[in-house]
Write a structure and sequence with these properties.
This protein is α/β, with parallel strands linked by helices and about 240 residues long. The chain contains 8 helices and 5 strands, in the order H-E-H-E-E-H-E-H-E-H-H-H-H. Strand 3, helix 3 and strand 4 form a beta-alpha-beta unit.
Length: about 240
């Protein structure tokens, strides 16, 4: 089970390490290092940096799932995913208090709270306490953390403990098609390379747009109880 907080946030079914595709070798190696760290007994701290669509949320949720599945079901070996950009949630700095008791904490869109003194102090405290407790912390930010307008020295010092990983958008057609196929297989859809190539060609290798369209096609497939074939896609897009 995942840790219970005052709010309950589910994980996307397709978000796992097996469905993540990295085009750059440096990114692939960093992800391997991240996954390996989740199996080690000591604490680990990573920050994922990159623009929208680079896979930050995917990897945070994948880490949550992997850690809980491999470490057990106890409170101290559970995980929690917290998206700070979700304005529908009752998010206040105090929500970070006590998270150092949880085995794996993943915080998405940390850049949303940078510049707010109370949030920065709460995050710095979580990093320090998690290190002392030997727990694992994974956070993400849009852009580069070196560009953060940090207002507290406490967070500046705490961030020195965090290992940075810079992600990149998929741009190669082959890699985009592979990512689509892995995602669809995870969700129980059978998508051919021909279908993937068609979508990528239609949307000029724009992975974010291709993925958004593909989600619509998946929903249409469920509603109409049809396989995702090239004729079906052309019908949906028309």
């Amino acid at each position: 089970m995942f840790a219970q907080l005052p709010l309950k946030i589910g994980l996307n079914e397709e978000s796992c390490f097996e469905t993540y595709v990295a085009e750059l070798e440096s990114v692939a190696m960093a992800v391997v290092k991240l996954q390996a760290s989740l199996l080690q007994s000591q604490g680990s701290f990573f920050i994922l940096m990159g623009e929208e669509g680079a896979g930050k949320t995917h990897l945070l949720q994948a880490a949550c799932r992997f850690y809980t599945e491999t470490q057990g079901q106890g409170y101290h070996t559970s995980s929690v995913y917290l998206p700070l950009s979700d304005k529908t949630l009752p998010l206040v700095p105090a929500i970070l208090e006590g998270l150092e008791d949880i085995g794996m904490v993943c915080i998405d869109d940390v850049s949303e709270i940078i510049g707010d003194e109370k949030w920065e102090l709460a995050l710095a405290s979580l990093i320090i306490k998690s290190q002392s407790a030997g727990k694992k912390l994974l956070i993400s930010t849009s852009g580069d953390m070196n560009d953060w307008p940090i207002v507290t020295k406490e967070l500046s010092i705490a961030m020195m403990m965090v290992y940075p990983v810079k992600l990149a958008l998929l741009q190669n057609r082959v890699e985009i098609v592979e990512a689509l196929k892995k995602r669809s297989e995870r969700l129980g859809f059978d998508v051919s390379t021909e279908v993937g190539n068609y979508l990528v060609k239609q949307f000029d290798n724009d992975f974010i747009e291709v993925l958004a369209i593909f989600k619509l096609i998946e929903n249409a497939s469920i509603v109409e109880k049809r396989r995702i074939t090239l004729p079906f896609i052309k019908k949906v897009l028309s």
